[in-house]
């Protein structure tokens, strides 16, 4: 009689098989394995095996239990073939070794991810580039940004708007391509007869850029990325879970940061 367990661990099905040549002398023993019941309760066994396969608990302990049970019930006149037992033991050792390697790799990946997340804490106080038209002006330091002119555009018009949508500053730059640096100092245009420079109040502003398409001559909105200061870091279990709190912006995922500046 042969008893085989289906498994999903890459083991040879014969690994968990009773030798076809061995004879069972009794239907049960102290280990609780009832060979007669196995043939009569196929549905129950199938569910039990499926549950074990699902949780991946067929391991060395299971194999040794089956092997010792087989040895205990084999016919002394027709014992298990030694070469077959050695082969099965070798296969088991190989699979156990692969499982150990997989576990080790998982530990290494987790450690690297944790280290990467922890290193993000060194970004506090640094300026990072994030794709956004929104920019935070602290009332004293200039707002810096990058305009993506891509393959190239004609004259590029850049406007800065306050939270009410009013234009506070506007510039026209000659045509260009690729990434273009932009800086807004936040200085108000002085009124006639007033030579004292004044700054716009601190708060959120919007930077918009429009370039002239060289092929069609039509105005085209260009992508804008602005620099923001990292106020704090919320560490996650992995690099992807780590969040940066940007002053004036709120939380932004570390993976969405395009550049880090001094």
TrEMBL record:
Biased composition range(s): Low complexity: 9-22
Ranges of residues in domain FlgD Tudor-like: 115-258
Span list, region Disordered: 1-29
A Pfam family assignment: FLgD_tudor
GO biological process assignments: bacterial-type flagellum organization
Keywords (A to Z) from UniProt: Bacterial flagellum biogenesis
Domain of life: Bacteria
Membership in a protein family: Belongs to the FlgD family.
Function in brief: Required for flagellar hook formation. May act as a scaffolding protein.
Name of the protein: Basal-body rod modification protein FlgD
Species whose genome carries this gene: Anaerobiospirillum thomasii
Native organism taxonomy: Bacteria, Pseudomonadati, Pseudomonadota, Gammaproteobacteria, Aeromonadales
């Amino acid at each position: 009689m042969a008893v085989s367990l289906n498994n999903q661990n890459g083991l040879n099905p014969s690994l968990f098989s009773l030798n076809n040549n061995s004879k069972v002398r009794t239907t049960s023993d102290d280990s609780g394995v009832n060979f007669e019941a196995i043939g009569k309760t196929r549905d129950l066994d199938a569910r039990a095996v499926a549950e074990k396969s699902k949780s991946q608990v067929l391991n060395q302990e299971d194999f040794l239990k089956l092997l010792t049970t087989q040895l205990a019930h084999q016919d002394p006149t027709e014992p298990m073939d030694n070469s077959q037992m050695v082969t099965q033991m070798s296969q088991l050792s190989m699979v156990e070794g692969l499982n150990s390697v997989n576990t080790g790799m998982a530990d290494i990946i987790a450690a690297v991810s944790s280290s990467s997340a922890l290193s993000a804490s060194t970004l506090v106080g640094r300026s990072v580039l994030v794709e956004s038209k929104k920019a935070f002006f602290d009332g004293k330091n200039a707002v810096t940004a990058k305009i993506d002119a891509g393959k190239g555009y004609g004259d590029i018009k850049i406007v800065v708007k306050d939270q009410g949508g009013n234009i506070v500053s506007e510039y026209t730059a000659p045509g260009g391509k690729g990434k273009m640096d932009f800086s807004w100092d936040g200085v108000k245009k002085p009124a006639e007869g007033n030579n004292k420079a004044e700054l716009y109040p601190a708060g959120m502003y919007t930077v918009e850029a429009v370039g002239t398409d060289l092929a069609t001559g039509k105005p085209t909105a260009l992508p804008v990325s602005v620099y923001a200061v990292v106020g704090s870091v919320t560490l996650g279990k992995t690099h992807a879970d780590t969040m940066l709190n940007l002053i004036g912006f709120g939380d932004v995922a570390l993976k969405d940061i395009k550049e880090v500046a001094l």
